[in-house]
Design goal:
The structure holds two protein chains of two kinds.
Chain A: H1 2-18, H2 33-55, H3 63-72, H4 74-93, H5 95-111, H6 121-145
Helix pairs in contact in A: 1-2, 4-5, 5-6
Chain B: H1 2-11, H2 14-32, H3 38-45, H4 54-79, H5 88-99, H6 103-136, H7 141-159, H8 163-177, E1 180-181, E2 188-189, H9 203-222, H10 230-237, H11 248-254, H12 256-271, H13 276-291, H14 303-327, H15 333-344, H16 351-356, H17 358-382, H18 394-413, H19 416-434, H20 439-462, H21 467-470, H22 472-498
Antiparallel strand pairs in B: 1-2
Helix pairs in contact in B: 1-17, 2-3, 2-4, 2-17, 3-4, 3-9, 3-15, 4-5, 4-6, 4-14, 4-15, 4-17, 5-6, 5-14, 6-12, 6-14, 6-17, 7-8, 7-20, 7-22, 8-20, 9-18, 9-19, 9-20, 12-13, 12-14, 13-14, 14-15, 14-17
Classes of the chains: A mainly alpha, B mainly alpha.
Amino acid sequence: MLRIIVLLAFAIVYGLQLLNLKLGSLLSPGPGFFPLILLALFISFLTIEAVQQTKRKSQKISSSYILALIKKQWITFVFLICTIAYVFILKKIGYFIASLLYVFVLTALFEVASLKDLRNWRLWARCLFTTIGIVGTVYILFNFAFKIVLP
Amino acid sequence: MDLLVQLMKTAIDPQVLINICWGFLVGLFFGTVPGLTATLAIALLLPLTFGFPPHIALAVCGGIFMGGMYGGSITATLINIPGAPANAITAIEAYPLTKKGQAPRAMRVAAFCSSLGGILGVILSVILLYPLSKLFLAFRSEDKAVLIIFALVVSALLESRAIIKGIVATLFGMMLATIGLDYFTFMPRITFGVKPLIRGLDLLTVVVGAFCVAEVLTQLGQRLGAVDLKGVRATLRSHSWKEFVFNRDDLKEVGILNILRSALFGWIVGVLPGGGGAMASLINYSFARAFSKKKAEYGQGSVEGVGAAETGNNAMCGGAAVPMVLFGIPGDSVTAIILGVLLIHGLIPGPYLLIEQGHLVAALYAGLFVAAVLVYLTFLLAARQYVWLCSVRKSILYPFIMLAALIGLYGSTYSFDQLLISGCLGLIIWYLRSGGYPTVPFLMGFILGPLLERFVRTTLSMKSYSAFVTSPISIALWILTLLSIFIFGFWLPKLLKRS
């Protein structure tokens, strides 16, 4: 149900954007004509989906449910924050340092399975070597083989 | 015939051949490793194709496509984990054979049938492409609009288990495609006040978000443990290389008719927009089971079932490229990205592409053809070593994919904004996918939405809305659409449930 709410929110924002566009007529459609049809269809099918979901047993959305979801998906949030941060620091400090930091965090996210692993120095060493290998390989591939100028 | 000659000429060009070979190996690797798919491989390659001549880029894509489609059967057979959804059916029949100590038999049948299916699919496509292109020349804007509606309906029905979710995903893709400049008035629309969105969303940005970022997110969530491959390695080593050669008894058991029927149905599923390998193998498996004299073997390890599924999904590759080349309508997710390769090189799909630049179409089919041959050849050479492909660590693979995808996207757009947009899109698509909203209809909607709008608005401006229901071709396509809704929405799900 949460997904339907998210999609519905998108539909509302999309619909508000449509207010500024000319719709035109059926024989001379404007830029807002086609998006309006899409929006109408989208909301209709979303409503059908919502009705179908309410018939099924579904999880009630409460603050505790959202907190549990965040707890379960913490790794996703860390990944996203890192990716956004990477794009910003890539611009500022260039490919090597930014990529080393980013890939190291990503490798650690895949390697670390429990809190015990945090004390395992071998795991961290493996992460470090993997990171250096990946960043170096991508640099060679793009800079030399594909001749792309990296930031 | 021209296309066949061009295909042969391209296939023996050493430069093309070398590129197909590495493309095939990349596809094989991505197909074999669970979680990685040929779609992801081509998505990663997409930014890099800027630097390649178009015929090489297309040939490489062909190689990756075929290699990836076959690769999934290796893990499906050996460890019961299909490398891709297209090989899920193979796992049902091939893994029980492995458990009975008949892994070489299951592997050789899968490899031979994949190879043969791939070759037959390419031959069928090459023969039928020219007649189909002549037919398409008669299409007017209203017919093209109805054809796209047909494609969108079929893709939404075929790709998803829940039809409504498929339709919502398709419409969501179409809505995102409306962001940016209007094709007719050049007015910015639906930009949400964000400046970088004025130029719209690039296909490349969407592909990286949908197939790379979303996939890494999925894998982070799953965190599967490493598979113990020691036992499998020991089993494979205990067999001599002769046991990996497909023989006459295997052919008898699989059945020539079964292979030919599976190739034909696989090809037809490929031609249908959004069909894909999973649907091709599922339909062929169901038919093979329905017509089989050894029904009791199914589920316990049926060579016939393995043959049907693998012939079908590889024959699909040739078929999937047909609507992409002729109409610009992708047959599945891989051809949707290959379409991006065409667009990056400024090539417009359609009958004129075939007539004026047939060598490019020939290059794509040469890639598929050579890779189909390589499937069996590499199997004979390295079957016992294939298990090594499954042992690559996730912690190496996915960070590499993520970095290569982001840097590749930056390299082709030189825009940091596109990186952020692809990250946000990846999150949205991952979130929707985890709720059962399929990705392929979303991508189809994103690609076909702008085309549909263009044809609808052209028809309405030049003619009238009645043109959509009075043109004979449009009427035929509407009937076909309704028929598809009945077949794929009601009849086929019932049939598959029963079998």
